[in-house]
Amino acid sequence: MLMDVIGRHVPKVEVSKMRQALAAALVHDLGHGPFSHAFESVGKRLGLKMADHEHVSDVLIRDSEVATVLNELGSGFANDVADIIRGRGKKNVYRAVVSSQFDADRLDYMRRDRLMTGTQHAGIDFKWLIANLQIASVPFGVDESSIGEIETFVLGPKAIFGAEAYVLGLFQLYPTVYFHKATRGAEKIFGELLYRTIMLIQNDSLDATGLPNNHPIVRFARHPDDVESALGLDDTSVWGALPLMCEARDGAIASLAQSLRYRELGKCVDIRERVAHAIEDSGKADDEIDACCAKIKEKLTDWLGRQDANMPPIHLDEAQRSPYKVVEETQGPLDRINIYTNGGKLVDLKQRSAVVAAVKPFKLFRVYCQRSDMETQKVVNAIVDGEIGNARQ
């Protein structure tokens, strides 16, 4: 549908560019490992480049059977597709199909994730948004100096309410789906399980993990720079390993594997929610909430550092999602929603919508403890209550 918009509004459509954009939209996520971004977080902790889905996607598109197929569309076609995904080269409307506020990926996963999770939040008028999409040249620059223009998707003036629903809908998916306490709790367990398993394997302690020598996780741990070992990992290989890891000699691995296999997720202590409730009642502002959470995190981190490193008694979880980036925080017109006013002036959505401008970022700060570990829960609650008491004085 985005290509139809380009076809309607671009006088001289570049067919080769359209094909590259279509291909890029289809293959840009090829490199995702098991459990997607949760696996990437493990890779960052261990410094594993083959856990970075953008790097793996780039390798596959440039040098695999994927490249062979893509290059049938023209010499160098695969490299051109990879460059679009990596953000190299000229920014234009074809690049906007792959990476922008209205890229194909975002418009797809918003509706797909809403459907698959069953949530009634985040509904958008997709057809109306597409019907009101136009293409215009938007100026960009550094500070106050203009350095050029970029052709990108913009919205007509009638789409103001649809645009608001789109921004708020995407924003709502985070607290209700992506940042849901059960989702994040499971991701924390998965991350700790895979982190410790890979660490033990790389330290020649395979026997403690419960895994056989030829398991895909073992191959990846031993050859983390090999793309084939990365491709051997998927959700199924991890789920299939859980019964084996439940019998691991390493107590931490066995406990974490059992938690995932039997969905015995940790007890969630929503620290920020508790702090916000207490401090907002006292009439204090967000800055005080942030400061109180920071002090709690400092004390929890200090306490955690004195515990058994092999089996952390708590998992800290901190994240933030802004409903919409202000112009100064974006990398240009592709990273914001441009919309026409009724007078024909093209402006940033936040300048026209009081609703979007008023929504505050969603922040979370939680701790997950084992449900049976009452002593740890007492420690966490004592630290939280103590700092809340200090903040309210």
From TrEMBL:
<dbReference type="InterPro" id="IPR003607">
    <property type="entry name" value="HD/PDEase_dom"/>
</dbReference>
<dbReference type="GO" id="GO:0006203">
    <property type="term" value="P:dGTP catabolic process"/>
</dbReference>
<dbReference type="InterPro" id="IPR006674">
    <property type="entry name" value="HD_domain"/>
</dbReference>
<dbReference type="GO" id="GO:0008832">
    <property type="term" value="F:dGTPase activity"/>
</dbReference>
<feature type="domain" description="HD">
    <location>
        <begin position="18"/>
        <end position="93"/>
    </location>
</feature>
<dbReference type="Pfam" id="PF01966">
    <property type="entry name" value="HD"/>
</dbReference>
<dbReference type="InterPro" id="IPR050135">
    <property type="entry name" value="dGTPase-like"/>
</dbReference>
<protein>
    <recommendedName>
        <fullName>HD domain-containing protein</fullName>
    </recommendedName>
</protein>
